[in-house]
């Protein structure tokens, strides 16, 4: 797949906008949403029989200057252990309101650096989860790993516990870039861990990279691609670096003058897409790649791909129940986000309160737009007939304003509207966030203070 790059088009559409991990996006969650609202939702709305569990383990030993995650920098084992005890208590607080017949089809540990826990802590937490939930024999069980803190013994433990999918946070293997972002990890360490994980026969190995970091350019990024094509991981994610120092203050530690400009950045991504697709990978959604035999690739080609806070998935209409600071639970008609501060999180749990920070209950309009935006972000295609039949609306009347906004994108060759459908063209692939923004009712309100929390779309 050859991306068509036009610098003028890039400049025109390089605006701030959501990544659409959820709709409505997180900045639109309601601070008036409280613990009682969460409890009422759990009691009054049926939870899906098959669920996904997410555990946020925020600890890191050092700060990566680009980081946009919710992390807590510490090597203090007592702090970690106290957090884990609070995490277990949170599970029990939620369990009281869950049906007894639910099955865990997906379990994900994210962070932070989940493998910064000791092997004993990893074993204890996993054993606890097994004791509290029925985990399907074919469940997706995954964990994010930092190569700098991963040992072979730890990989063996994860495999023996039942983790079948791992994701290495590589980001960039160039030493100059690593120094600029305060994340030094020699390439031979990454390589050794990767091939040991292969020996252990994990079902799927993913690698995460970031493009748009300081000191990156088209020439030196090719070293990443060279090693990737040697390693051949099952899946790859190339995240666009979101420079939002007004949200993440530590990003001010990066020299903005050393960041690649938008033209250079999109040329890097063009090289990523061309190299990987030339070598057989399927370009999925916004920024993911997978081997042709991978279930994500098959779902994408069949327009059956889905997306939640854990990333792209083939699992459909499944509630996500999340634990830990800042963790976001995702239900059919609601989102719930936990408190941000570890201190406050622990205090609320000690007082036997579910640590709710904010949330959102969707109305019918939200549900329709959420469905459309997910189809854009996952499958690059929206069938108007399907939406009309599902929600009993006249698509052209209901989305007259959205269709007006899409006219400009169509004139620029980014999308095509015909046969009662919306199709994102090759030229529009890097700009699917912009396409989705045409259906975002919250952006129509033009609240600049909320728009400023988003990164640029390129």
Strand percent estimate: 15-25%
CATH class descriptor name of the largest domain: Alpha Beta
According to CATH, the homologous superfamily of the largest domain is tm_1862 like domain
The span between the termini is 19 Å
| CATH architectural label of the largest domain | Alpha-Beta Horseshoe
| Shape estimate | globular
Structurally, the number of domains stands at: 2
What does this protein structure show overall?
By secondary structure, the chain is α/β, with parallel strands linked by helices. It has two domains: 1-24 and 364-458, Arc Repressor Mutant, subunit A; 28-320, pyruvate-formate lyase- activating enzyme. Helix content is 39%, strand content 21%. The chain has 17 helices and 19 strands. The strands form five sheets. It has a nine-stranded mixed sheet with strand order 9-10-8-7-6-5-4-1-13, with helices on both faces. The chain has a three-stranded antiparallel sheet with strand order 14-15-16, covered by helices on one side. Strands 17-19-18 form a three-stranded antiparallel sheet. Helix 5 links the parallel strand 5 (135-145) and strand 6. Helix 3 (77-95) packs parallel to helix 4. The relative contact order is 0.16. The mean pLDDT is 94.
Key terms:
about 20% strand, 19 strands, about 450 residues, 2 domains, three-stranded antiparallel beta sheet, 17 helices, Arc Repressor Mutant, subunit A, pyruvate-formate lyase- activating enzyme, alpha/beta, nine-stranded mixed beta sheet
